[in-house]
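Entry type: protein chain
Record version: 2
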Amino acid sequence: MARPEEQDRASLAASLGSTVRRLREGRGWTQQDLADRLYVTPSRVAQVELATDPPNEALAQDLDRVLDAGDELNVAWFHMNRLGHPSWERPYVDLERRACRMRGYAPQLVPGILQTAGYAAALFSVVRPGISDEVLKRLVEARTSRQSLLGGRDPLHLWAVLDETILMRPFGDDESVMRDQLSHLLLTAAQPNVELQILPLEAGHHGMMDGPVTLLEFPDGPGVAYLAGTRGGDLAESPHTVKQYAMIYDRLIFNSLSPEESRDLIRSTLKERYGCPPPPPPPNDT
């Protein structure tokens, strides 16, 4: 028997699919007509409408645009996808979407918002033994969808400090997992709204050795600190506590490699440990 959480997600997927069909038929379009505008197959449109294979975020955005849904489909997708996150993580994910600035320290794992699909899948496979392929797919999609916050017209500003051990530790059953992940870090760090620094081992002990910490700032309210783990997390909202974590974070930045030095270290790790040249920088928009 499906868990209530899975039933809720299936219900939301069915509602999204029904909305797509209503909007499509309202325009007098066949599934082929819609598929042609989306550059997908008619069977993919049918899967969405029947909720047998709900859309990912990119397809949901295309559907909303092509059908001129006024964000109705984007909002529906968000509520459906929200259930892909563990229940303890959802309050944080909601806050993350509202934030204008994020600062975070990661001692052992690449931060969720920067994880590739391969890295996330390898992580979920070991922290949730026996996980089904369907649940794994949903968790990975929910995790990687958070990266969309770093793009768009008003992107989230991210400042991330990663411990050097993250670069050194093999991850996944194949070297390609870390090759892809490190390449992704380099490409993301090239974005103007992203700063990435590495805290070297030589920095010694510091005030965030207990675990990962994320500081969120909002345009319309006080900030929060989030202390996360693989199976739980705690929000700290006290201004005094948030200020303490911010002070510790500032010291971490001071003791970390500069952004350019950090990118050089990732490049050398790719080359020396994985025999892989770094990815070319993204093309300039100018």
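Comment: The first strand starts at residue 101 and ends at 106.
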